[in-house]
Amino acid sequence: MGKANNGTAAPGAGSSLADSPQWQAFARAADAARLDAGALKTIEAAGLCVDLTMQWQSPALEEAGRALLEARGLAAARDALFEGGPVNWTEGKPAWHTALRAGRTREAPDGQDSESVREYARMLDYVRALDKAGDYSSVLHIGIGGSDWGPRLAVQAFGGPAQRRQIRFVSNIDGHSLHDAVAGLDARRCLVVISSKSFTTAETLHNARAAIAWLRNGGVRDASAQLAAVTANPSAARALGVPGSQVFKMCDWVGGRYSVWSVAGLSIALTVGAEVLIGMRAGAEAMDQHFRQAPVGANAPVQLALAGLVNCSVKGHNSLNIAAYSARLLHLVTYLQQLEMESLGKRVAGDGQPVGVPTAPIIWGMPGTDGQHTFFQWLHQSEDGAPVDFIASLQGHPGSPDAHRMLLANCLAQRQALLRGKSLEQALLDVAHIDDRERALSLARHMVHPGGRPSTLVVMRQLDPRSLGALLALYEHKVFVQSVVWGINPFDQWGVELGKRLATGIERELAVPVSAGLVDWGHDASTSYWIDRYRSHAQAPRPRHAGLPGVAAHL
Ligand code: F6P
User: Do residues 340 and 361 both lie within one domain?
Assistant: First the structure.
């Protein structure tokens, strides 16, 4: 990851988006469009219904969007994505997560993809064998970013009482994470799954070593036997002690934030069942087909992307709120934060020049109705507000139809309130009983909701693996379409490298003995101050904290 090679030609290099006549026509049409939910606009895609009625609309905007996508070369870019072309042009690699979803149906001539199919089958066989033998009552999943969010999301969505094994996740390098995760687990009945595409991620390797120490100190004589790994770097996993038969190979041509479609689904299969993985892949594959085949005007990812381009790049909204009306989608926002912000959080296009229009809104949110009691006030009445993507299902928990009706009613009501708002005249009716008219008017002003705030509603029949897979692929392709328009490479992540590199040096400096005397670290005043202050603090004599048996000594 993060390696520069010669790369490949960037699509659209040399053409400034902001100066292009198609962009200017699109921006003009967006300025003149209506936001009044006057015309129903829904698209059925892979079992989802995407309702864009409450976005900016007009026939001219539709037409300008079509012309923009054509000018930016969407069709060719999409073909390259699906055919395994080097769409990650700064690293000269494909980003071929769609091939994983297509599974057996696609065989690359160079055999690359048959290896991914083989490894996936081997991973599922491994899970079946463990299930049959009744091995392990818990899984300790170690990984971060794309090697963590997918499993967390799926386990939260489909776990619960029927879960086959307990699972604990450790991602953060914060020692509390591992201590808390292993608390109450029987080391002898726990499988440690180390998930890392690169197998060089500092947090993951540190936590993996600490987990191995925990196994040993928990009475496990052969700790290696209780390790499994998913990685594109099998030799590093074996070097850590993971038996080769329990190392499952990811392909280098799948980006870390797309790894849930790969053997990185191991922990999902172990805890909520292989059928969840299979269903998710099938839903994503159905969305892939829709994205490839549906015409622009009826293409859900494309239309979602265009709505986002209007809101972000034309109307200037720098964030997008995700409100999933499902407690089981607790981790959807974080999953989408990585997908959208690691992919699009960039400001230069293929030619290295600034894109020239605002890009990549901040993704934030939490499930409804919790969000309503947290930040919806801001969505309704702050100066700017933000567009919202509402996500809901027709069917909720079968045992609580009333609760689901309330949940859905809240979702529909919030969208309506954001769009319609509440005028001063309406607010005055609410205070008509107050005799003091001056006070009534002043109070009414506080009750005004400006309205005119756009939203999308994505509805699934019910939250099941298939619909979750389709939902994730919907957002993946939306991101891809936006990247094509902005001219951004959505498959690299140079922005996480600089901080990582600096941390390595600073960590070394934090460990320098105070007895070394005054050191000129060559940093800014604040960084140098905190390095020295931490060293004095950490090296001051104090009683040692015992921590959990077997773990503290290794952290
Ligand atoms: O945050 C940067 C990143 O490289 C992500 O893209 C990736 O999901 C994460 O780190 C973990 O990387 P790895 O799977 O190689 O440990």
Answer: yes
